[in-house]
Amino acid sequence: MGTILPKFDSVFSIDCVIFGFDEGELKILLIERNEEPFKNWWALPGYIVEQDESIDHAAERILYELTGLRGIYMDQFYTFGDVNRHPQGRVITVAYYAMIRLNGTKDLKPISNYASKAVWITLNDLPKLAFDHEKIFSKGFEKISHKISYQPIAFELLPEKFTLTQLQHLYEVILNKKLDKRNFRKKILNYGILKELDEKQKGVSYRAAKLYKFDRRKHAKLFQKEITFGR
Q: What's the domain range around 177?
């Protein structure tokens, strides 16, 4: 006869690492906590999973309640289970990440009193975060820095129409390195994933650049290749 385990409740939480790109800067979505512990601290959007809901459903609910954002597709990327990561007891958190287009300002309005506000903050202005959220953020950033080298995730952050300079700048921000302009353009155009448009930038004081769109029909083929800008 096998060992009979005692009945117990596991405490799980969700933490969301949401990246956005706006006006040439990579940003992260944070909330200001309105509850102890760490009241008035900045934190990633996160909370406890209810006993009767799935992990994925909890991620959608928590992000909506703390930021007002809905319909954001998120992927799980890591589980954090250090024994002392939460001051009130053992809490295991499942971390999700997403990359979304900001296109100016996305309305943020917490539905729950657990968060007093939600804001987009540039990575250069990242404050000290509650719990182990700096570790979670770092792991999420590491994830996209690696993934951008072999999947077309950069296009999830850009406007529908963009210039090659904007695309290169996004790669440089995420990879944290300067890329050779000529080499970058040659490589990205050779992949055949961009549609060259018969349009140029409008309302700029400098020479208007040509606009491009991501060709989603080549999406599946790109997943079989590796983009080596960061290698």
A: 160-222
**pTM exceeds 0.90:** no
Cα–Cα distance between 111 and 109 in angstroms, integer? 6
Q: What's the domain count of the chain?
A: 2
Residues 25 and 135 in one domain: yes
Dihedral of the CA atoms 178, 180, 186, 190 (nearest 10)? -30
The CATH number that applies at residue 29 is 3.90.79.10
Strand stretches in 8-48, DSSP E: 12-22, 25-33, 42-43, 46-48
| 64-76 mean pLDDT | 94
Task: Classify residue 151 as exposed, middle or buried by CB count within 10 Å of its CB (0-12, 13-18, 19+).
Answer: middle
Q: How far apart are CA 167 and CA 22, in angstroms?
A: 12
CA–CA distance, 228 with 187 (Å, rounded to integer): 9
Closest by CA to 81, choosing from 71, 68, 93, is: 93
Cβ atoms within 10 Å, residue 32:
16
Q: How far apart are CA 119 and CA 67, in angstroms?
A: 8
Q: What is the pLDDT of residues 92-106, one digit of tens each?
A: 999 999 999 887 556
126 shares its domain with 164: no
